[in-house]
Design a protein that fits this description.
mainly alpha; about 55 residues; 2 helices
Length: about 55
């Protein structure tokens, strides 16, 4: 197990690459969700403002 984690002396590069890939994948998944929430909030604000003006 220790040999696997050590990766033949390249453990830092291998594990940091995995970590960076994970961060990018999570950002790719989370970003559209946050943008959708923001868009829905803006639309709700716009609708409520236009409803108050009439």
């Amino acid at each position: 197990m220790q040999e696997f984690l050590h990766m033949g002396g390249y453990a830092f590069y291998v594990w940091s690459s995995y970590a960076l890939a994970l961060v990018i994948l999570l950002a790719t998944l989370i970003s559209p969700i946050l943008r959708r929430r923001q868009l829905l909030r803006r639309l709700a604000d716009k609708i409520s403002l236009s409803g108050n003006q009439s």
